[in-house]
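Side project, low priority. Logging it here so it doesn't get lost.
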Amino acid sequence: MRECSVVARSLRVLCSSLAHGLLVLPLVSLALLVGVTPRANAQNEPRNFDARVEYNQDFVSPTNLSQSRAVDTLRARIPGLAITYDPHTGVSLSLNNRTGYLTGRDTGTDALDIVLRFARANYALLGLSATDLAEYDVADSIHSKATGATHIYLRQRYRGLPVYNGQLQITVNRRGRILSVNNTCMPQVADAAKAMTPAIDAVQAVVSAADHLGLGFSAAPRLLSKGQGPQQITRLDYPNISREEIRAQLMLLPIRRGDARLVWNFQIYTLDERHVYDFTVDAVSAKVWTRFDWVSSDQYRVYPLPSESPNHSTPLPPVDGRKLVVDPADSSASPLGWHNTGSSSFTIMRGNNVHAYQDQEDNNQPPGSQPSCGSSLSCDFPISLDQPPSSYTAAAVANLFYWNNLIHDMFYKIGFDEASGNFQMSNFGLGGAGGDPVQADAQDNRDAISNPVSQAVKVFRHALAVRRAADVLPLILRSLLFEQHLLGCSVPDTQRYMAEPGGLD
């Protein structure tokens, strides 16, 4: 049994003992400590599909020595450097300084110029080369009047083709300091893009997508127009499967380091108006690589962060102060959402991270009947706070499911991932053993932990190897702005974040 099994058992006890009704204070406290699927050919299959998950199951990008040296150099200058990597492409996914900034002040310079200068001086740090960013678009530039921060989004291109989700996003505060870097660009794209001429046209790609959805077709799509540029933008009419015109274009899809595929990218607006599917179809083999639904489907009526309980909501009890939270799963921490394990999908409050259910019998087993969110995954259940908790069990289970998943996703973002021994049914080939999702028992009337907050801190300090709350609280202060004295620990330089405009954004 793996080393984290003790932590897993402790967490399950914790979730069980804290699940009386809707009280979530200990989970809020924990939040303060942290700052492809199988082929789907029917409408009851998982919402999203990404063939790269299975394809890359046993693949890990090799170590990039120049990147490692660049990281070590920056860490020597910035001890609080936090960095994450893409396990399949090897790029530096995110960079930030837990206790300050990544760069010094640079007033009087345009934010875009600051971003470009940083990128060109730090190719190795990002895991990229000069060729990888030789072509780009400024996809967006968003300036916050409230904080003075500017968010720059650069879209990667190669030989006139956009790289699918290939983006470098850098945030610059009003004094020209870089706050954070997020990078999903394709490294060594010139070597990875082996095929640049399509073997199938857009019509064949759309037919392949229709077959993937199990829709069938009685006639081929009607070609409206076809462009001659590198992207070969093509307009199609296919009223049998899409209620709107289909616009297909060529792109490069990152698969893993050394492998980028030429694909047709387009959207299908389903006739039932429930889905807008974004497809990438291999322009050589007609293989469907990805299908992502742009329509948010799962929703939860809960007491969301930062509400600790019904007594901390607006309006106050007995009025229902819950909010409807739509599509809350983090795409990197829970790539299949909260109701899918990679092999099975659920309409009850069960998924890859958590299985939540009422345990009023106190037997640590789910009951024979569990509340269902329906095929649309609408976990919206009534509540009457002037009635006994047993009258709103479904609402309590939904709230517990939401909070457990939220904590999973928050901790994932700061390093408590598969390889670190987190709690998931499937680890998608990213390390660790898997098979240990959290079992969250609602309303089981137990009190196994006398001081749940301190026990929670102990459990997660072990799991995350967090030596001081000060190591992680500044990161959380940037996004949550919660109180500094949660654990009676000092937080380095938080006053600078609080006082300087743009420091938090």
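Brief comment: The chain is about 25% helix and 20% strand.
Revisit when time allows.
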